[in-house]
Amino acid sequence: MKCSLKLALAALVLFGAGCSRRQAMYKQDKYTPLGKSDFFPDHRESRPLIEGTVPQGDHDEHLNKAMVNGQPVNTYPFPITRKEIERGMERFGIFCTPCHSQSGDGWGMVVQRGFKRPPSLHEARLKAVGPSHFFNVITNGIGMMSGYAGQIPPADRWAIAAYIKALQISQDGRLADVPADERAKLEASK
């Protein structure tokens, strides 16, 4: 009996020591954004940038934010070629089809399993918007969709936007829209 009491007391002491360490780490001194500091003469914890500091990373406003000179734009930050469309199709297949489906109609696999259906990418209102709308939605999310800025690099978000625009155009395509030489190949393959 005395042995089990000693073990229980030892366990309690060890548990208490662990808790006090946790609290000590949690309550350590640290600077917080916009906090007050008595250490600095201006009493701010956040320090101003040192003059001449060069920011790191890619600061191409058009590529990263769909803006130029602080104004929203609806143009691509680079030329869209077949390579970008194919990259967009690949990325769309990975990130977008679970909800939007391969065709973009909004009947993806997760919707078939009970999740809320997203709008069809072929609705008139979505056909009328430019590529920056899709870039911004992929970046920041909208409604039930969360943003993918952490998973998809900006160039791939633009490629997906280009693919979505191509996908939208393809749904209204007619044989007359196909160039004559490509049309001849299609008819020869029948």
Provide an overview of this structure.
The chain has 190 residues and is mostly helical. The chain has a domain at 61-173: Cytochrome Bc1 Complex, Chain D, domain 2 (Orthogonal Bundle), CATH 1.10.760.10. The protein has 9 helices and 4 strands. It has helices at residues 2-26, 61-65, 82-95, 97-100, 109-112, 124-127, 131-140, 154-171, 180-188; strands at 67-68, 71-72, 141-142, 145-146. The strands form 2 sheets. Strands 1-2 form a two-stranded antiparallel sheet. Strands 3-4 form a two-stranded antiparallel ribbon. Strand 3 and strand 4 form a beta hairpin. The longest helix is centred in the first third of the chain and has 25 residues, at 2-26. It is flat. It starts with a helix and ends with a helix. The mean pLDDT is 87.
Please summarize what this structure is.
By secondary structure, the chain is mainly α.
What's the structural blueprint in terms of helices and strands?
Blueprint lengths: L1 H25 L34 H5 L1 E2 L2 E2 L9 H14 L1 H4 L8 H4 L11 H4 L3 H10 E2 L2 E2 L7 H18 L8 H9 L2
Antiparallel strand pairs: 1-2, 3-4
Helix pairs in contact: 3-8, 7-8
Helicity level: 40-55%
* Global Rg: 28 Å
Uncertain segments: none
The appropriate CATH architecture of the domain at 61-173 is Orthogonal Bundle
Question: Which sequence of SSEs, written as H and E, runs from N to C?
Answer: HHEEHHHHHEEHH
Biggest sheet details:
2 strands, antiparallel
Q: Overall pLDDT, averaged?
A: 87
Keywords:
190 residues, mainly alpha, Cytochrome Bc1 Complex, Chain D, domain 2, two-stranded antiparallel ribbon, 4% strand
